[in-house]
Amino acid sequence: MSGLLEEGIGLMVLGMGFVFLFLIILIFVTGYMSRLLNHFFPEVQVATPVEPTARSVNQPSIDAQMVAVITAAVHQHRNNNTN
Fold it and tell me: pTM (2 decimals)?
């Protein structure tokens, strides 16, 4: 019985060793392929457009009267919920 158990443990260690070795080789091959592809096909830098900091023409300006109306509505809603 002990011979069968030793053989099973030996096969398990051998199998796990091959899997570990395969994964280590896979890590190095993937890194090498990545460097190789970056060498032959370098990434092109795309110029990003700079957005203006001022208000755009498409955005409407907020009217002072509208701000007052919204503020009054919020205050009224808060006062009604507290009572």
Answer: 0.48
